[in-house]
Amino acid sequence: MTTQTPPPEGHTQHDDAVAKVAEEGIDGLARETEGLSQGQLVRKRFMHNTAAVIAVVVLLFVVLLAITSIGFGPIPGWWKWGFIEQPPLVDGGRPTLRFTGLGEHPFGQDNLGRDLFAMTMRGTQMTLLVMTIIGILTGIIGTVIGAVSGYYRGMLEAFLMRVTDVIIIIPLLVLAAVLGRTAMTYVGPGIWRVVALGVLIGLFAWTALARLVRAEILSLREREFVDAARLAGARDRRIIFKHILPNSVGVITVNLTLLLAAAVLLETALSYLNLGVQAPDWSLGRLISANQQAFTTRPWLFWFPGLFIILICLSINFIGDGLRDAFDPRQKKFNPKKATEASGHMLDETDGYSVVDAGAHQKDLPRDIARSGADDEGTAPGPQKPV
Amino acid sequence: MLGYVIRRLLMAVVILFASSYLVYVLSAFAGDPLEDLRQSRDPNREALMAQRTERLNLDVSPFLRYFLWIRGALGCAAPFIAQCDLGTNLQGFQVTDLLARAMAQTILLVTGATILAIIIGITLGIVSALRQYSGLDYGITFMAFLFFSLPVFWVAVLLKEFGAIRFNDFLRDAGFSPFTIVFVDIVTALAFYSAAYGATRTKALISGGAALAVMLLMVGVDATGWLKAPFLGIPGILVLGLLGAVVFTFLISGFRNKRALYSGLTSVLVAVIVYFPIQGFLDDSMTWPKMFALGLVTLVVGLGIGYAFGGYDRGQGMRVGGLTALWAGGLVLLDRYFQSWPAYVSHGRIRGRPIATVGSSTPGFNEGFWLTGIDTLTHLILPTAALMLVALAGYSRYSRASMLEIMNQDYIRTARAKGVSERAVVMKHAFRNALIPLATLIAFDIGGLIGGAVITENVFAFTGMGQLFIQALNVVDLNPLMGFFLITGILAMVFNLIADLLYSVLDPRVRVKA
Asked: Do the Cβ atoms of B165 and A169 come within 8 Å?
């Protein structure tokens, strides 16, 4: 869109269309970039992505519902049942959720009469808790190790990257299972075991992020503004944290988001294998493993926890996708319908491919594919999904 | 190149040592291997504990015990110098035997799933890239995101319920009610209408045709009792075989190469002609090596047909002939399995519920080559489907991205500008190059898969590598756990290297640092 040249003399209909699109493109570009900071630009582009915005709303709704309904720690909840109480069975424990209201037990009850809504909310809390701890720890450790090794290079980089190599070949699920077993041995049942699980996994799950950040820093440190900062007398710490890292915030955010989605699946999988959250606490994975035998008699015990896992994971994935688009500087404000129409006028035989959407589908290329090549580090995989 | 490989391999050995040490120490501190004995009320439990401690050197600190273990494990790397010894598990079984059995099960499980996921995922990705921003593209993209977010254990439980229990119920009195037929027809028509590409009239024609085909198929299946006693027969092999020939010709050479089309059609004809003579050969004396040899013969015959037709591009004809021959041979094989199907379903051990939910075979079921083959397939179908669905999403996203990137390159525009047909542009210029980044991804995935299907194996009670690991971890049984890690670690390292080498071989722009 940016490289269009004005049409030569002797206009045809096609040329007119090209010129029109080109002008709009340049105009649109100028208007978009005028006086906006990077943050504002990213936010603006993100808000144009309907799927991502819906995903944010859904995720916020799930988080608020989970925290306010049964309460968390000191926060009191508005829901009448707790996740351990055993009220009498109503109507065989069938769900009472209707369009008109929640009813007595919106998600139904299990065979002991426990309220599935309360249990699911507790499970969601635990899943989100583990996810948050893993996210924070991984984000900090991965960024710092990646930044330090990318900036200082030399022996330090060699050492840190070999440590990364050593950890990264252990499959994440295997490592997490071992750590989950460790948490079971040393920490008594209860919320602290869940916290310990999150912390232990977070201490080992940073490797993929560290590699990506290092690769990003390696290219950023050669740029002029870093030289300028160094000439101005800035210290290394200031250069890394004030000049380089803000420029790699896109890579970090996007990959961290995708890692969060993987962490949700990891935690539910561990709990399903009975190596994560344990009785009397609930995780979404443990709810499914505890109730899978009852599928024929009480299918709702199986549907609702699964639905919440998918809701959380799907919305995080969509947010990650939206962020990737928003952070990509090659991407301009883009309307697929318009582009298809415009290209239809311009080049009839190209099946919808044209100069108009030249920058557009770059966004789809996952960063690690774009980067992968035969260097010493091997190919960096995306977050592993436990299967 | 050689220098690079040697350097990488040396590095891999060092890394493997370090990470196996890490895993050993972490797992050793994960729990107490004597826990079951401590809690038992056995009068001689002290003696049992002492015996296990003695046998597994539990009195040595894990930091040092690792070196006792690695001494035995090194024997596996250099079998002529020392003996391969991965130790024993808590019960005293040799870990090498356990691993061999588990590996066989896991390979059985993941092979089909991986191949299917790659083929279907890449096809979906390419199709959605070629129809970017269409309803089909949005549909596939959304499905990819959804599958990517699905926990595999949830999918597995669903499959068990609907793919096995309900489906077996359905098979008991198989048949479609008129209501079902109409409903499926409407759904098909809507799906095809939204997925089709082109003018409204074309879309309506396509969706109408698809709905009609589905309706005829369902009525036919209902009328012939096909679900009870499935068959292909000569007509089925002929129709499906010709369809295969046409598709392969279209993909490989295009219809302008008449000789390629003819060689495909001839392959199908040959398959139909040998259908009756070969039935006597496909009896219970069949073995897998014989089957493999038959496949090879089929391929050679197909290639020969293509060669005989010749023409300006003999290679295309041979490829079409060979592929079509394999496809038609596969149909004959499928027909043979179909012939044994009623006997399998009514077998005393199966009792009319063919699709299994757990295990890799019916215990003690051994009724000759064909029935045992069906038994394995009915056990594999659900875990394969679960693994495939979950892996599909990644491949379709990656291949879509890769294809879009390629379709935007200048040389594609050049090819179009000089008048190359759209088929040739896509298949020859774009598709092959789009596969390059995928090749590395696939190599990478295969490396991780052998140890990776932990949850799926758990749900379907497959006694593979994943189960071995989980069971070992639960009782903190270090030797099998380390055996598991050794295999997965080595495979990950090797396939990592293969991925990088593959990239530099396929993409001449990438050169390895020697």
From this structure: no
CB spacing of A170 vs B394 below 8 angstroms: no
Could you please state the CATH topology (level 3) that the domain comprising A43-331 is classified under.
Answer: MetI-like fold (1.10.3720)
Of the listed ranges A23-37, A89-103, A281-295, the one predicted with least confidence = A23-37
| DSSP string computed for B406-466 | HHTSHHHHHHHHTT--HHHIIIIIIIHHHHHHHHHHHHHHHHHHTTT-HHHHHHTT--SHH
CB B374 within 8 A of CB B367: no
**Is residue B241 in a domain?**
yes
Mean pLDDT across chain A:
77
Q: Tell me whether residue B396 is in a domain.
A: no
Query: Which residues of chain B make contact with A203, given a CB cutoff of 8 A?
Result: none
Contacts of A74 by beta carbon, 8 Å cutoff, 6+ apart? none
Instruction: State yes or no: pLDDT of B173 exceeds 70.
Output: yes
Residue B24: give the domain boundaries: 2-99+447-453+463-506
Contact list in A for residue B448 (CB cut-off 8 A) is: 171, 384
**Residues of B with CB below 8 A from A309's CB?**
149, 151, 154
Task: Name the domain count of chain B.
Answer: 2
Q: Which residues pair with A109 in a beta bridge?
A: A115
pLDDT digits (tens, 9 = 90+) for A185-215: 888 777 888 899 999 999 999 998 999 999 8
**pTM of the entire predicted model:** 0.82
| Residue B121 clears pLDDT 90, i.e. is over it | yes
Q: Which positions in chain A touch B473 (Cβ < 8 Å)? A: 177-178, 181, 275
Closest Cα in chain A, distance from residue B400 (Å):
8
Please state the rounded mean pLDDT for residues A153-164.
90
From chain B, the residues in CB contact with A292 under 8 A are 157
Contact B397 A376 (CB under 8 A): no
Element (H, E) at A351: none
Q: Which of A105-119, A273-287, A340-354 has the lowest mean pLDDT?
A: A340-354
Chain B contacts of A385, Cβ < 8 Å? 148, 390, 394
Examine the pLDDT at A324 and tell me if it is beyond 70.
yes
Please identify among residues 116-175 of chain B the ones whose CB lies closer than 8 Å to any CB of chain A. Answer: 130-133, 145-146, 148-154, 157, 160-161, 165
- CA geometry: angle at A216 spanning A211 and A221, to 5°? 125
Distance CA B385, CA B114 (A): 10
Between A200 and A301, name the one with better pLDDT. A200
Q: B304, B323, B345 — which closes off a domain?
A: B345
Q: In angstroms, rounded to a whole number, what is the distance separating the alpha carbons of residues B18 and B5?
A: 20
Query: In this complex, which of B408, B454, B485 lies closest to A353 when CB atoms are compared?
Result: B408
| Closest residue on chain A to B13 (Cα) | A166
Rounded Cα gap, residues A138 and B170, in angstroms: 49
Q: Is there a contact between B455 and A177 if contact means CB atoms under 8 Å apart?
A: no
What local confidence, expressed as pLDDT, does residue A347 receive?
39
Q: How many CB atoms lie within 10 A of CB B273?
A: 11
CA distance, residue B239 to nearest chain A CA (Å): 32
Q: Would residue B68 count as lying in a domain?
A: yes
What is the 3-state composition of chain A as percent helix, strand, coil, each rounded to the nearest 5? Answer: 65, 0, 30
Domain boundary among the residues B330, B345, B360 is at: B345
Q: Do A387 and B451 touch (CB under 8 A)?
A: no
Q: Is B137 a domain residue?
A: no
Q: Does B268 touch chain A (CB under 8 A)?
A: no
B153, B450, B503: which to substitute to probe chain A, counting the most A Cβ within 10 Å? B153
Range of A280-289, B27-36, B81-90, B209-218 with top mean pLDDT: B209-218
pLDDT at A343 over 70: no
The span from the CA of A273 to the CA of A252, in Å, is 31
B436-487 tens-digit pLDDT: 888 888 887 887 777 768 889 888 988 889 889 999 998 888 889 998 998 8
